[in-house]
Amino acid sequence: NAKTFTMKTVHTEADGGPLFPVGQRVYSDSYGEGEVVTVRMNGDREVIEVRFSGGRKATFISKFAQLEKIGSE
């Protein structure tokens, strides 16, 4: 029985963590300020959910998210 192995590519910061960790404050031109509430993998893509002011939630693929980190330095 032949086994197939696949490698997952995880897009991370230089320190090995997620691009947008849980608790990270972010800003979106479309939604305003928010906070990352979940980070999960969907295949080889890191997917984040952000809760914005007013309670609105949005889901993004991290490497394509047009979000600015707030206070991360």
What this model shows, in words?
It is a single chain. This protein has 73 residues and is an all-beta fold. The chain has a domain at 25-70: OB fold (Dihydrolipoamide Acetyltransferase, E2P). The protein has no helices and 5 strands. It has strands at 25-28, 32-42, 45-52, 57-61, 68-70. Strands 4-3-2-1-5 form a 5-stranded antiparallel β-sheet, with no helix packed on it. The termini are far apart.
Radius of gyration: 14 Å
Unreliable parts: 5-11
Query: What spatial order of strands do you see in the largest sheet?
Result: 4-3-2-1-5
| Coarse shape | globular
Helix content percent band: under 10%
Count of helices? 0
Structural class by sheet pairing and helices: mainly beta
Characteristic key phrases:
mainly beta, five-stranded antiparallel β-sheet, 5 strands, 0% helix, globular
Structure in a nutshell:
This protein has no helices and five strands. The chain is mostly beta strands. The protein has a domain at 25-70: Beta Barrel (OB fold (Dihydrolipoamide Acetyltransferase, E2P)), CATH 2.40.50.
Task: Present the secondary structure layout.
Blueprint: E1 25-28, E2 32-42, E3 45-52, E4 57-61, E5 68-70
Antiparallel strand pairs: 1-2, 1-5, 2-3, 3-4
